[in-house]
Amino acid sequence: EVQLVQSGAEVKSPGESLRMSCMGSGYTFRNYWIAWVRQMPGKGLEWIGFIYPDDSDIRYNPSFEGQVTISADRSITTAYLQWRSLKASDTAMYYCARGKFSSRLVLNNYFDPWGQGTLVTVSS
Amino acid sequence: DIQMTQSPSSVSASVGDRVAITCRASQGISNSLAWFQQKPGKAPKLLIFAASSLQSGVPSRFSGSGSGTDFTLTINSLQPEDFATYYCQQANSFPLTFGGGTKVEIK
To answer: What are A42-82's pLDDT values in tens digits?
Structure first.
């Protein structure tokens, strides 16, 4: 069974750093895109970016570029999303999702399954 | 960026009803469209990809149609488990974008 398992909820103060994880299992991790998605409280879905673990090709949504860093460690089938300095506006649920097709193309790829989500609360 | 506009933003319906949700892209995206279902406190679930292809395991009462700029998700014979929020998403060009969501509520 293809599964993505995300790290647990985090409570942080503004200015702190954070790295969250998304571990894939049940498939060849390196050959499928992993996406990160933000959902702010009571709001819709926003793509943050994508990584192809085989060669760490990364595509960021311009709205998030410079704000977060996406990475992956093929040896432990895990993708990461990290911040150097959190803001209160980073409070949200974050999801990872796997590309449906083992294609090198991220366009015309579709994302399923999804991880269970990691809730991040940033508050002073 | 391609803007995805869903309508309605919410709809009240009864079990057994047929519900149609539309999604309009600000420019042509061929058939590069997905539909997701999200229930409260849960991750989104892919229902339809490539505008009209049913994802494995999704009930056949869900169907998608459209091409270019106008798309529709239809739920035939609404079931209690279908009350949720639905999102469209274009996969044609960067940045990928979602619609604002349509909440299907119990009448």
So the answer is: 999 999 999 999 999 999 999 999 999 999 999 999 999 99
Q: State the smallest CA–CA distance between residue A53 and chain B in angstroms.
A: 19
Burial class (CB in 10 A: 0-12, 13-18, 19+), B47: buried
- Does the beta-carbon distance from A114 to B45 stay under 8 Å? yes
DSSP-assigned letters across all residues of A33-92: -EEEEEE-TT--EEEEEEEETTTTEEEE-TTTBTTBEEEEEGGGTEEEEEESS--GGG-E
Hey, are the CB atoms on B32 and A117 less than 8 Å from each other? no
